[in-house]
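**Paired protein data**
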Amino acid sequence: MVTTSVRTIPIRHCNFEAKVKVGGSGPPLVYLHAAGGPIWDPFVEWLCESYTVYAPHHPGTGETVRESIYAVETLWDLVLIYDELFDALKLSSVPVIGTSFGGMMACELASHRPDRISLPAVQEALKMPDDPDAVATAIADLVWALGATGKFVWPIPDKGLKKRIHRVKADTLIVWGEDDALVSSVYAKEFAARIANSRFEIIKNCGHVPQVERLETLKPLVQKFLQPQRVAVTA
């Protein structure tokens, strides 16, 4: 088990108090979590074997103040929060891995600041605790996290990324589950066609969560891509 700590970083934009979980050792790497909130799963543990992983909690999720999401009115606000956060952490040209919603944010950040990012790329994850009170809390946290992230993807997730995705300069690995029922794997090819220095990998017999469903298939893809360091986006 990797020893971790949570750093609190005040962000002037939207007066947001950021929470960043940090663990591992080695060169820095940023991990952006999915819509359901921050989960420190075996995939992140594996990354910590080679990198110092910085895992920010999206506003309104994890250890951030729930109500902080109200002040983050637009996607642009969210991008600027992450931009200031990277400055505060002194992260420049850093590999970023984003899963699902985190993958979307990785692309937005890479198109906003091409110099900032060097893009490389269920059951157990959704298992409820045994304690009934803990179950209620877990469900409430999940619902709130989905609401906090859904604010930026509902009802239409496209916020104009297709107009600025050409700005991404980082080498990019796109990983998608072939059987993804939430977002079709055809989008992997679409993303790769629009990002100059990119390639995509389709994982067979896999849905929306490759890092949970096919971890042992995903790890060598990411490991190879991160040598040298870049950023990865997984479906």
Remarks:
- Confidence is low (pLDDT under 50) at residues 120-126.
- Strands lie at 4-11, 16-24, 28-32, 52-56, 96-99, 172-177, 198-203, 231-234.
- The radius of gyration is 17 Å.
- The chain has eight helices and eight strands.
